Amino acid sequence: MNCVFGIDIGGTEVKIGKFRDGELVLKTSIKTDTSDGGRRILTDVFQKIEELSLGEKITGIGIGVPGPVTKGVVNGAQNLGWGRVEAEALIRERYPEARVKVLNDANAAAIGEMAAGSASRYRDFVFVTLGTGIGGGIVIGGEVLEGTTGAGGEIGHMQVAYDKKRLCNCGNYDCFERYASATGLVITAKELAEGRKTRLHEVGFSAKTIFDLAKDGDEVAGEAVDMMVDTLAKALANIAAVLNPEAFIIGGGVSKAGDFLLDKLAKRFREVCFFAVRETEFALARLGNDAGIFGAAHVASK
Amino acid sequence: MNCVFGIDIGGTEVKIGKFRDGELVLKTSIKTDTSDGGRRILTDVFQKIEELSLGEKITGIGIGVPGPVTKGVVNGAQNLGWGRVEAEALIRERYPEARVKVLNDANAAAIGEMAAGSASRYRDFVFVTLGTGIGGGIVIGGEVLEGTTGAGGEIGHMQVAYDKKRLCNCGNYDCFERYASATGLVITAKELAEGRKTRLHEVGFSAKTIFDLAKDGDEVAGEAVDMMVDTLAKALANIAAVLNPEAFIIGGGVSKAGDFLLDKLAKRFREVCFFAVRETEFALARLGNDAGIFGAAHVASK
Is A274 in CB contact (< 8 Å) with chain B? Predict the structure, then answer.
């Protein structure tokens, strides 16, 4: 029997999926050992997949990593302690007969949603992850757009305001992830809540509480969500004017707000976008945290 | 002998180039007959290329049209009087043995600059035309990005302001072409010139006079150019955060301002962009009005 491994290396754990014919047959995870410049991470992965292969032939290994990747070379992954790592070459050395692919984790997730999730109807779409920050994976003609330095799809660092109000980790002000991510939503809600009545003061400020209370009619929470949606819609409208994709797939922790978020977003997008892209479709991601292993396995299976 | 025709259909004239082995050997133009829904345009083109072929075998016909194109179908070209026209199929009917390609004119120009102009070193770049409006042609892996409805690269309709100050032809406010095109530059200069001393009041307001006076140290003209450059740099920074291209190629009438514009633009871009795309290169387009016929011939030559 043949098998393919789809792996998603994160800063705290490495998710590992074993696939046969595109089907996930086994899933596990190991701790990410970031000590010593993360030099044991790949060795730990090798050990685990050999254990899990049970003597079957490993025909493909796909790995998603949290950093820019171009042509199989990781150009720094801070959360892993990695600088430049020729990951694909290292893995090929160990598994010369397998199809080996290394790609950025957001891009892996995008491909995962195409292979087994809610983007299965699309070949040209933008996967948007709304979490602590905002990431993106751009798929054109079924292929990931890596970008010249691996920064393709770094959409969270587009700007939709220029007031120098919110400093971003990247050093710029007003990147749109400072407004439309979970973090951004909480900042906005706290600003709006000052001196006003809202149950957020009791339950605490998180993306979840804000969305829950917004659904419940809390005025401040509702305004915060609307401001987040407005910024997100404008950024996606700008992306659509560039790429004219078939669809936006919305994932990441904040997407748990579900149709409440999706409907508001699609509506606001249609109000602000260029008319020729008004039919762009919207869907929620479906694979959650498994998207990465599905995508990594997919690119290693072709 | 074999020949390929590269054709650029505009609202007033049709440019026709005859190529052998990628070399332009003959160039002419005919009037665009937009009467009667533009139904004679293609027939006129057929007649002209047969006359110009001089009995040589026509192995390829590429045509750029001023409107959205997807998979060889023109989805409306207002300046030609065209609605939906299955252009590629119509041309193939007449020339069954030729390689036939129909594409958007800005995309044809982008490919032209790659085939024979200043983008020859690149396979991933964005061609930006600064004219009455702002158009774009996105090339990824050497191929044009058409977009789902043919609106790929309609970058002029990205927004970098949301003050509802300037109405765009598309119906939206504050599309960035209302600020960074020739038209936008003139509007800005007129606003800035009100009640102030500037030689623009004598020589008149045009993109050319504004750039000429800015080079000459005229304060108002200089401010207008800086505002235009600022908006353009911000829009290109947003595009770069999405696509991470190798380069931006700047064309269109306004690009005649040359290195004076290009240097300011590259400098401002590096100030405002996401750090990971700071090395994006800038170059001036080189083929001017011939870019379209070169690009059309190129895609029909492969």
Answer: yes
Give per-residue pLDDT as tens, A108-117: 999 999 999 9
Q: Check: CATH 3.40.50.2300 for A121-285?
A: no
* Residue B145 at interface with chain A, using a CB cutoff of 8 Å: yes
**A2-110+290-301 has CATH 2.30.30.30 classification:** no
Domain with CATH 3.30.420.40 in chain A: 2-110+290-301, 121-285
With beta carbons less than 8 A apart as the criterion, state whether B140 and A140 touch.
Answer: yes
- Establish if B243 touches chain A: CB-CB under 8 angstroms: yes
CB pair distance less than 8 Å for A276 and B153: no
Q: Which residues of chain A have pLDDT under 50?
A: none
Q: Write out pLDDT tens, residues B76-121.
A: 998 999 999 999 999 999 999 999 999 999 999 999 999 999 999 9
Give me the residue label for tokens 């043919």: B150
pTM of the model as a whole = 0.94
Q: Is B287 on the interface with A (CB under 8 A)?
A: no
Helices (H), B5-125: 35-38, 41-53, 87-94, 105-116
Q: Measured between beta carbons, which residues in chain B are less than 8 angstroms from residue A175?
A: 274
Distance from CA of B201 to the nearest CA of A (A): 32
Q: Chain A residue with minimal CA distance to B135?
A: A242
ipTM: 0.94
Phi, psi of A275 (to 5 degrees): -55, -30
| B173: CB partners within 8 A, 6+ apart | B159, B162, B163, B164, B165, B166, B167
